[in-house]
Amino acid sequence: MSGPSDDRELQLVLGELRKHDLANGFTNAIRSSIDYVLDGARTGRYDLLSKEVHPGERASVGAKLEYEVQRVFNWKKAKPLDIELAGVPVDLKSTVGDNWAIPTEAHCHLCICTQMRLKDNVHRSWLIRTHTSWLYRGKGNKDGKRGIAVDARSQWGVPLYGWTRLPINPLTLLTESQADQVFELGRGQEVRLLKLFTYLPKIVIERSVILTVCAGRQDPMRRARAIKDRAAKKGILLLVGKWVSDRAAAKKLGFTLGPGDWVAIPDESATQEMSASADSLF
Fold first, then answer.
1. Contact at 8 Å (CB) between 33 and 64?
2. Nearest CA to 116 among 34, 206, 14?
3. SS3 state at 86
4. What is the rounded CA–CA span in Å between residue 252 and residue 277?
5. 282 belongs to a structural domain
6. Is residue 116 within 8 Å of 61, Cβ to Cβ?
7. What is the pTM for the complete model shown?
8. What tens digit of pLDDT does each residue of 179-224 get?
9. Same domain? 42 vs 138
């Protein structure tokens, strides 16, 4: 073969893959995998690169990603590898580094290889046949896993999508001082949530962020809704996607809220205008 175009099975799989919005699907799968590992609602963690996250946990994002990718694209588990596309066995591999560990059972087979750069919040993927002659020489690690030679990836790999941004957890935008206040254990949930919305204006806050801030506490969503009046007194219009009126108000101000999303608008004039019209937005 002179290139991927001569690999019939690769072309069959590629045709199947092109039926999907791969960049968006992998973005969702990676985000879900990271959230699963962090377990923010229980641990209060929100940054995968934090020293609070063990390197082993960080590496486990790849293992979780295999299942999340199958869920997102509705790809069924199939032996001898991870999945089967167009009747061809395909393995799913990922790395937070620069290379992948290809197990012996996947040698010479097709692999979807995903690379995540966590510091830059980006990811990309290739489809490549991991022929033994294109893997690093030698026996590999103790499990027989071997990495893909860089020149082989360039010549034989087919990019499925280029560098794609991962959504940033809004909590990572807090300064160290602000984070200390938002997560101050001696404070009640309402005080901490009010600080959260004050420090992160005009940023859509998902439900998972609220659960992380209030990790282990009782009924944090009710506490969040309870501070709307207090926020208004500080000149902050606090809108929640749970309510139709708030979603409509947010849309008028340029924000799209899902059912569990929140946004704080600190503009006092906007607060007065939207508050006055809120009752008519049902």
1. yes
2. 34
3. coil
4. 11
5. no
6. yes
7. 0.84
8. 999 999 889 999 999 999 999 999 999 999 999 999 988 899 999 9
9. yes
